[in-house]
Amino acid sequence: MMEDNSSVDIASINEKIEKESAFVDLLTREMNKVIVGQKHMVERLLIGLLGQGHILLEGVPGLAKTLAINTLAQAVHGSFSRIQFTPDLLPADVVGTMIYNMKVNDFSIKKGPIFANFVLADEINRAPAKVQSALLEAMQEKQVTIGDETFILDKPFLVMATQNPVEQEGTYPLPEAQVDRFMLKTVIDYPMMAEEQLIIRANLKGGFEKVNQVVDLEQILRAQSAVRDVYMDEKIEKYILDIVFATRTPEKYNLEDIKPLISFGASPRGSINLAVASKCYAFIKRRGYVVPEDVRAVVHDVLRHRIGITYEAEAENITSEDLINKIVNEIEVP
Prior knowledge:
alpha/beta; Rossmann fold; Helicase, Ruva Protein, domain 3; 11 strands; 45% helix; 15% strand; P-loop_NTPase; nucleotide-binding
């Protein structure tokens, strides 16, 4: 697959990526001191960080979601802030506000918790639409406007929003257009029994090992630009497009049976994020080129929140996951 591209020097790209991605193992090892099991979540956090995207995490309380992003922030020595979303939260509580200073008879700006490298938006579906949109503007534009001043947010900037799939009372579900802003939606499950045993032991012992800084922010920024250099063959691009287009026009891909189950397919943002996430996955695996397995590894996280299912699908207990599985199994791998 690679040989016919004489203009692209895969060997040198590979060498460069191998050098730039050396810190990934260090970072993962450091996070594993504290995060037991949850390998999938840790990997997805790294993909979000390297791909300059944001992550929506869905899982029941107590699965170390807050702990994971806090540990990552410590390991790269980035600033961390946590915003607990509640129904009475205001946009100013997230982005900041103008405060009147009587001494100088003027307004000064007080920045909100959004000004950090790593922001945890806990239970994002508990806050009203106004607050959600304030956060989403910051995520999309990487900037915040307070009064008539605009501030560029620090880099790297990663938002990890969590939502609890169980409680629906007193929640404001995120609209499709807003969910689409998240590069990945990762669903996390309970740990295995052996892992939970280790968690119990660590907690009874009185906490985990101390997390040390193993990478600096400069290295992360370098890695973010190196990810873009990971080579993606045209056949892989075509594979990504086939998967995304099959969510829109399944009948053209021999998938007529799922057409009535899909209310809307993935947007172009889906294609872009699938390509970026595949490159990040290859980078984490310390490879300078993307293979179909990379695409298949991230396809669920990138597309599960971008495919709308119809009432008919809901009635038959069919999820967007099932539809992605059908599409991936049907589409020819290059």
